[in-house]
Amino acid sequence: MNPGRMKERITVQQAVKEANRSGGYKIVAWEDVKTIWAYVKNFDPERDKIASIDTRKALYDVWVRAADISTENRLLWRNRVLEIDFVEEYLAGPPFYLILKCKEARSL
After folding, report:
1. CA-based nearest residue to 36, from 77, 72, 83
2. Cβ atoms of 87 and 70 closer than 8 Å
3. What is the pLDDT of residue 107?
4. Are 74 and 32 in contact (CB under 8 A)?
5. Residue 95 in 3-state DSSP?
6. Alpha carbon of 5 to those of 58, 70, 83: distances in Å?
């Protein structure tokens, strides 16, 4: 990965959780953790037909320098919310990178 390709600014968010009476947690808000440079690659959306509702899931690979990011986080990019499905390490020499496999779900 050429670091010069990282021209997009993304915001990493984490969930603010609140305990409920049943002993579990619910997400009440998302807070910004940090803003970092990234390279974002968009793939063709997948279309699903569920109960006569056409849905579209846009898929993304987001390359970032190695950081404390997991599937518990989400990303904000160009007014889009990207959910992280999988975190893959790319160890092809220093500095090390993460490839975040993300999706953006929208109903049409």
Report:
1. 77
2. yes
3. 46
4. no
5. coil
6. 21, 22, 22
If you write DSSP's letter for every residue of 2-45 in order, what string do you get?
Answer: -GGG--EEEEEEEEEEEE-TTS-EEEEEEEEEEEEEEEEEEEEE
Ranges of the chain whose pLDDT falls below 50: 107-108
Phi-psi region of 79 (alpha: psi -120 to 50; beta: other; left: phi over 0): left
Q: What's the rounded Cα separation, in Å, for the pair 105 and 108?
A: 10
For residue 60, how many other CB atoms are within 10 A of its CB?
A: 21
SS3 79: coil
Structure tokens at 2: 């050429």
